[in-house]
Amino acid sequence: KGEVSIVIGARSAIFAPLQRLGIIIVDEEHDPSYKQEEKLKYHARDLAVVRAKQVEATLLLGSATPSLESYYNAEKGRFRLLHLPERIEGKHLPRVDVLDIKKESGLFSEKMKTALQKNIEEKKQSLLFLNRRGFASFILCPDCGFTFKCPNCSVTLTYHLRDRSLQCHYCDYRIQAPADCPQCQGHQLRRMGIGTERLEEEIRTLFPGAHVERMDRDTTTRKQSHHHILKRFESGHIDILVGTQMIVKGHDFPKVTFVGVISADTSLHFPDFRSSERTFQLLTQVAGRAGRGESPGEVIVQTYNPDHYSIQRAKEHDFSGFYREEIQFRKDLEYPPFSRLINFRLSGNSEKRTKSAAEEMGKIGQALLKKGYGKGIEILGPSAAPFAKVRGKFRWQMLAKGKSSRFLHQFALDLAARMEEQTKGRGISLDIDVDPVSIL
Ligand SMILES: [Zn+2]
Ligand SMILES: [Zn+2]
Hints:
The protein is α/β, with parallel strands linked by helices. It contains ten helices and 19 strands. β9 (about 165) and β10 form a beta hairpin. α6 (about 275-285) runs parallel beside α7 (about 310-315) and α7 (about 310-315) packs antiparallel against α8 (about 320-330). One zinc ion binds near residues 143, 146, 181, 183 and 186.
């Protein structure tokens, strides 16, 4: 009816039926959550580009760490680049120290401990970031090498101390943690790897006088609990807040002067061509939480890969330096934005049938390449997905890479039609993901 003049919302707001659309603003445009992965797949930022074009509205994409695709579009003159060279209110960017932890023992380097101690004494606040929840990422029997795995997913179960449970973070499967090894009855089960729950406990032990709280999916299940933690932090009741990605996004805490990244490596080694970009974005966003108020900020990043360009460029707050290295890598391997990708993912209850359908898909794909698609399309795979089993479904995938999206779409339609025989009535489904944001 034209009664509303401004609509604010998450990604689905892009579908709001506005008659006189003048401007679309997509803030934090690099955020992968703009992509809806379930049912109808769409990327809200990409739809915003289309919608703005259709009605000749202005589109404003905002980010301190733009996606490679958007920055490339700006470089090529398809988007106009507007630069904000100064931090808000002219504040200085925090100093970032990168610490090689190969030679350190324990969770925290001495430098990190000193920085936390100093902040407690000066009544300033600290944030500690670790992108893994739970107490231990897996439990290992040193006698026979047994680890607890999820029966539905190809991942180890995470140990949670609070209820002594073993949980799968992909399908929510959970069991009580047994005292002995189920394979050899050994008594020495060991908790390996760290999560935020253990980080919180270690911090409490190290600084018994400090007020420590944790914010992750486990501490924010109750309604309002998320809000209450943020309130307590804002009012200065918390000295050290430990958390996952949840503490990173867009919060403005003026009293935070120190940010510690426990391990910068968790996202670096994902078998996904965007892992460097994600790591750079995450570190930059985390570091950006420090020094937003009167006092200058300090950041310590602990890592096993101190020389990696994602980490080095994040340390120097150097987006364009990062962009130059990353865009060269994408160009050399012809990954987006130099190509478009479509991920064809098969999932099914039977490992054998899913695998043989995937092999058949590979043959069909190759045959299509011979029939003319080979001029502009390259196929990678099929191979088992990095997470080969999730929620009881076995997963295989094949990537098609090409420069023309129209050509790729035609290829996808042809392939899907020929695959119907392989999937129909066999408990296998084919999922076609155009411009995937994750190929795990
Ligand atoms: Zn699972
Ligand atoms: Zn054992």
